[in-house]
Amino acid sequence: EAQVTQNPRYLITVTGKKLTVTCSQNMNHEYMSWYRQDPGLGLRQIYYSMNVEVTDKGDVPEGYKVSRKEKRNFPLILESPSPNQTSLYFCASSFGHGGARNTEAFFGQGTRLTVV
Amino acid sequence: AQSVAQPEDQVNVAEGNPLTVKCTYSVSGNPYLFWYVQYPNRGLQFLLKYITGDNLVKGSYGFEAEFNKSQTSFHLKKPSALVSDSALYFCAVRDGTGYALNFGKGTSLLVTP
Lengths: 116, 113
Fold this sequence. Notes:
Chain A is mostly beta strands. Chain A contains no helices and eleven strands. Helix content of chain A is 0%, strand content 49%.
């Protein structure tokens, strides 16, 4: 089954304690991205990756890091989380080559992060 | 730059009535337009997309959307709403130069019995 898997689904942590949210896809997609969803703001892109070892900032990258060492995995790292990073996070993947802009993105189930 | 506007935070409709969720977009070049639905505690699920061709596109769960180039709109519609359609709906656009999806703020649809 084609899917994007995120872990954990729920996470409560304290300010400053490093954490990683994992994301894995099984569709051989080139393009992967992270979004955060906040009430009234919709989804905003944090970081994206066009392929292995190719990452770039999205609209709201401050306080986040990513890596893309393998095509299927795209972890989101919060080195020193702060309360304003409390949010619902989604990983997404899609084809990212040539004329693939007409293809839809697949989303993970989301990670609800609370930073206290 | 590309952007999407969903002018209504919430849409209320009675079960059995037609529903419309509005979306307008701004993009340079030809747009690729998408609708997603989010049920509580779930991820986003793809509903339908417009790439080219027929302005009326049909998608999952009986939903359809009408592309209007002159009005730069892509409204989501369903002829007869179900209570189970109650969810958060997002419109998204991708332009012809990249792969990022730019989302609207979402519209909460409430269908009452």
